[in-house]
Automatic annotation (TrEMBL):
It comes from the Bacteria. One of its GO terms (biological process) is DNA transposition. InterPro entries: Homeodomain-like_sf, Transposase_8. This is Transposase. The lineage of its organism: Bacteria, Candidatus Falkowiibacteriota. It comes from Candidatus Falkowbacteria bacterium CG23_combo_of_CG06-09_8_20_14_all_49_15.
Length: 104
């Protein structure tokens, strides 16, 4: 049984995408830019096409998506905190029980 391979996707800032798309527009050879920044030619070409079609706004992140991302992160952290509080209470109860059994 083979396990699925998880690809690590890099996250690029909107400014980085915009700058590379501009550079791709000006350059004659996109493969040089691709190698220079470690970006596939297909991704670079896609960014260039987005820039031509929609201008610089195509790389901006919407506030709503940022807010929802932050909300989900907060929810995950709250869940982790709750789990740690439960674990701590279990350990305290075990410690109290253990001490009460060992005292004469």
């Amino acid at each position: 049984m083979s396990s699925p391979i998880k690809k690590n996707r890099r996250q690029y800032t909107p400014q980085f995408k915009f700058d590379r798309a501009l550079e791709a527009l000006r350059a004659e050879n996109m493969s040089e830019i691709s190698r220079k920044y470690g970006i596939s030619v297909n991704v670079l070409s896609s960014w260039r096409s987005q820039l031509l079609a929609h201008g610089p706004k195509s790389f901006e992140t919407s506030p709503d998506s940022e807010i929802s991302g932050l909300k989900s992160k907060v929810a995950r952290l709250e869940q982790m905190l709750g789990k740690k509080e439960v674990e701590l209470n279990v350990l305290k109860n075990f410690s109290d029980f253990y001490e009460s059994r060992n005292t004469p």
